[in-house]
Structure of Tubulin/FtsZ GTPase domain-containing protein:
Amino acid sequence: MPRELITLQVGQCGNQIGRQFWQLALEEHAQHSRRAVFDESMSSFFRNVDARASPPMDLPFNAGRSAIRSLKARAILVDMEQGPVAETMAGPLGELFDQQQLLTDVSGSGNNWAHGHCVYGPKYDEQLQDKLHQAVELCDSLQSFFVMHSMGGGTGSGLGTYILGLLEDQYPDVYRFATVVFPSEDDDVVTSPYNSMLALRELTEHADCVLPIENEALMEMCAKIDRGTASAALSGFGSEESAARVVDDSRLTDGVDLRQLENAFGEMNNIVARLLTNLTSSMRFEGSLNVDLNEITTNLVPFPKLHFLLSSMSPVFATADPRQQPRRLNQMFSEAFQRDHQLIRANPRASVYLACGLLMRGNVEVSDINANIQRLQSEVRMIHWNQEGFKVGVCSVPPVGQKSSLLCLSNNCCIRETFERLHTRFHKLYSRRAHMHHYTEFMDVGMLDEAQENARYLIGEYAKLESASDATQPTITRSTRRLQPLY
């Protein structure tokens, strides 16, 4: 049975990451299915439609034997400026998206969470519900929503988190995943700490699983290219022209000189896109140990609200150079637990793991995976009540341009360092009540106090778990989820 996933790309960041994501998704399915048949794996992300009808009419699935006519992504594109969505629709992927599933305004949110959340949210609530209802009605077995947005801007952080709450209200039984990009500490949006702190509270309350990403961590990874320690080539492209076509105008945030760093931001977007395609590979392709997204939350989120997962990959970059030797399995496992492979600035080996998910792609033996897990159990610190807290998935179809890869998702107490850095930046502004008048125009000042208290709560709970001894039980006990066995 098809298991569909609906993506919601919100704001400039969300739409530009989404552009890379859909490019990679198309390449993966083109590599996997060369018969131009609309099979079950494609139905997770796409609809097969007759584009001659208005609106496009879905064609019968026919047990995965129908010929591909015209693909439409299961996606809703949202931005309160027209530019990013217009760029997508005018580009080579434009026909992939349904015109009825676009929502734009012209004035933007002014880098103000309150404007995006408290003004545009209620203003477009009914239209958002209609678009969601239409997307859900076209699914046979909807598994999850995937929301992509930034934390530092106005539309992504504000309207993006409003949509997350709307999803919880309208579809409480469908899992809500959020991939969010934290701004750099030198971000030129001076109010980004306010936006990020307010968005963090909404993510804590309304998401089932959050995959935080930091711009600075991505920049450090991309800097390896310039130092010659990683390949700058992106996989799946036969020429510089085709690579440039995808990289062109692909950026994460607008906090830097985009003209000078266009290629770097294209590579950063590519890293995030690979995270998403690897995460969803098991629900799209066959494998010996497939893992659905609901199993991620069941196994890796033992306590409510502590659902922020570190992401790391090996290899980080795919390469088109056939001379490069593929990584050994042992090397991939080691790299996935290293600091410089994390998508946030953190060192998980120096902290405590609550649970860990290992999602392999390619032709990999389960016995080899078990051997590496046994090695890791002696090298990393697992919480005392979950010493064997590894969840393993194996998808047989490798990523484009690779023979195998490893995605590691870990619920690790070191995530509090990200929240501590954000809280410090927030406090510098809030202690002086700087720029508050921009926010109190649209919201009550108490929401900032609640957001600050939420961050302190998260920091405190992760710190308690970090320091818990074998004889001390964690302080969070309500709604504890039972972790599933390894297989």
